[in-house]
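Exercise (ungraded).
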Amino acid sequence: MSSFPMDWYQNGSLRSSDASSNAAETDEKELDFSKVDKPRGLERCKSCEVNSLSELGKDGENSSHPVDHLENAASLLPNTSTNTPGALVLDPHPHPIVSEGWEALRRSLVYFRGQPVGTIAALDISDEKVNYDQVFVRDFVPSALAFLMNGEPDIVRNFILKTLRLQSWEKKIDRFHLAEGVMPASFKVFHDPVRNRETLIADFGESAIGRVAPVDSGFWWIILLRAYTKSTGDTSLAELPECQKGMHLILNLCLSEGFDTFPTLLCADGCCMIDRRMGVYGYPIEIQALFFMALRCALQLLRQDNEGKEFIERIAKRLHALSYHLRSYFWLDSKQLNDVYRFKTEEYSHTAVNKFNVIPDSLPDWIFDFMPLNGGYFVGNVSPARMDFRWFCLGNCIAILSSLATPEQSMAIMDLIESRWLELIGEMPLKVCYPALEKHEWQIITGCDPKNTRWSYHNGGSWPVLLWLLTAASIKTGRPHIAKRATEIAETRLLKDNWPEYYDGKLGRYIGKQARKSQTWSIAGYLVAKMMLEDPSLLGMVAIEEDKHLKPVLRRSNSL
Ligand code: GLC
């Protein structure tokens, strides 16, 4: 991270003597929080109306799926169709970890000129070289949800507005100007001792290791704006011209036309939570699922003015193509696996069955044992002659929450998690990806990354933050006992180990080699999971119902 505060500020654009830094001082032009309308009703608004393409004037159909009306999520408890041991009994007395967690979360608050604007990535910043002293956009999401669920939306509003201002600044890396819509990966508050004034410093990827692009930040920002609106019932924030513009800029970036033959979004490695080289370049499922979810959230938030309407049309078209593509080509279950195994290659024309010319010999050995008879998931990546068969947790959970996964696919994902409990949950939830890259593969794919050695960090490490996503997905599929059991496992260690960032080992038994302690999203992820288990109606904040207009093309195979 460069530590340059702003040198000067001109025409609303940031200039700095260090061309590679994106530091900024907020001055009088800064959007004043106090001038923004306070939420009209601050009580929790738990309802989750059906918001879908049907909002575009088409009639919604009544759905028979049990979770189509998320406000009824509470009625999903308890669930009986389970093969996971441990019945669901809600605890009337909060676990002692909960109060400790809240204290730790509050300690992580970051203030800018007296206002809370985010949470620090980790309070344990013993190693000065690293950038855990910053507010990361993706890391703040679980914190924001915890505050929203606790009826404290102000910090979330402040964060949304502050990051919006950062988006509007000129962004430059070396001599290259970044696109207008790019949201920062992270920012921090810098105290300028000379002027005795606080300034903000943002990182758009130029200071991150490997100069990785934070493609997920803009998507999380839109998803958070929708969560805020849903939970407070306050539509005035999203309706602000500044927020509409921020959304337009993000959408312009990801909806723009190029040379692509796929509706998915082409990305470089390290563009998301996995922000180091891990072979996720191409069309990583994490980004595709977040893209899909952000588009669906944007549909609910965009104003129907001229510009808004244009975006709504573009989004509708893209969602159609995107859901078709992902549900057809990224989905893998035992039937699909068998089909790939028997694929012919070198097929041309529209009649090709093996559309991407995936060579069956590229199927890794582990997949045949990993794939249960009942169950399936969205694979990590699909592009010409390349299917990355690895399981990635975040993308699959977001696929469930956004209803990118059909109800059958959602159930199959949860079936897979239950069948592969040891591999994916083990002794600490949850594996960020499975399996680990080892030996030669690790050398070639990670570039010999010493932080991403096998079963560590992004390479098969276990990340407690993912608990909130698993919990939301479990509740949405009517199987909260899965999350309950995983949460109980996490509770045996999280506080004792001082909220590590990640755990290592096949079972997640060991505190990660280089894991920070007091990692904020580990704390917030746990708290959000607990709150949702207590009150499943909170799910509406982070889940979207199935859109009947996005016709499923691929049902779970009949053989299941
Ligand atoms: C690591 C993680 C990234 C996270 C950051 C801050 O770089 O890989 O996902 O945002 O730490 O916690």
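Further reading is listed at the end of the chapter. For now, observe: The CA atoms of residues 267 and 282 lie 5 Å apart. The longest strand covers residues 376-383.
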